[in-house]
Amino acid sequence: MNSSLQTNAVESINFILDCPALGDLNVHWIHGSISAKHNTDPDIQVHAYNEHTYILRQNMAVHYEAPFIFLLFGNNHAILLDTGATRSPEFFPLRQTVDDLIDRWLTKYPRDNYTLVVAHTHLHRDHFEGDFQFFDRPNTIIVGHSLAETIAFYGFQDWPNKVVPFDLGGRVLQVMGTPGHEDAEVSIYDPYTQLFFTGDLLYPGRLYIRDWDAFCNSIDRMIAFTDTHPITHLLGCHVEMSIYPRLDYLIRTNYQPHERPLQMTVAQLHSVKEAIAHINGAPGIYAFDDYIIYNSIPDRYFSYENMDPNAAPGDLRPA
């Protein structure tokens, strides 16, 4: 499967502009509460970046990962980037939320047989658990959970070196393979908004690196891409850093007051290159102002019994 999904003969929305479509990121994201039991925030926060672009965040009281999810509309198809960390529609009504957004959009821009593509920035469980809710949804295509299926769906001929187009119907996304955190990770550029969706490879939080060489190469490709394409914001899938430089929140916390913004800049992306040179491939945890790089840290490191109960916030060294 690639950008040649079947199209509908309808009046087209113009997604090819001389400047980026305006969007709103003046938003106060829900960020959990001291008592998850008594949390009164919605299960899913829905924010309209603009009328064709939505950002959703899972309630931290439902799942501590609190991932961000993105819904983009084109003339013929919409794409849902990730489906969150919770399968149950009772606790995480993603299908209902997305269907409501699509119904509202189709009321204003009627189309027949409008397709929803359920895709993933990468294949970790906090980004695809909600797929289950879409299995029986009509006019829906779900990208498979493997590197081979990811490559085949987008039509990569030279993974991960070449960028490939994916056409939503006049809104042609540019899909880049960016492994390093996870083998099948992709980052997606939207020329309409000039937003660059960077998954878990870059966000204001803990960057867990499983393949150092792949990570370095992905960062190089991303920087080269941003050198030749205008970028409004880079949007990852989590916020784990506070407004204070180098200070993150405790792993698995359900409460993150004083979060920094989700959006990042090209300058912050470039700073990762300097961080790479500083780390030079050595395993360990390295705190920088806007993110913390965890290079080749075993999963067992993050078990509760290995954490120092007296550690200060942001200091997660084992006891």
Tell me briefly what this model is.
The chain has 319 residues and is α/β, with parallel strands linked by helices. A hairpin with a 2-residue loop joins strand 1 and strand 2 (53-58). The protein has helices at residues 94-108, 147-154, 212-228, 266-279; strands at 44-50, 53-58, 68-73, 77-81, 115-119, 140-142, 164-167, 172-177, 186-190, 195-199, 206-209, 233-236, 263-264, 284-287, 292-295.
Q: What labels would you give this structure?
A:
319 residues; 6-stranded mixed β-sheet; disordered C terminus
Question: Can you give a write-up of this model?
Answer:
The chain is α/β, with parallel strands linked by helices and 319 residues long. The protein has helices at residues 94-108, 147-154, 212-228, 266-279; strands at residues 44-50, 53-58, 68-73, 77-81, 115-119, 140-142, 164-167, 172-177, 186-190, 195-199, 206-209, 233-236, 263-264, 284-287, 292-295. The protein has a six-stranded mixed beta sheet, with helices on one face. Strands 7-8-9-10-12-13 form a six-stranded mixed beta sheet. The longest helix is centred in the last third of the chain and has 17 residues, at 212-228. Residues 304-319 have low confidence and may be disordered.
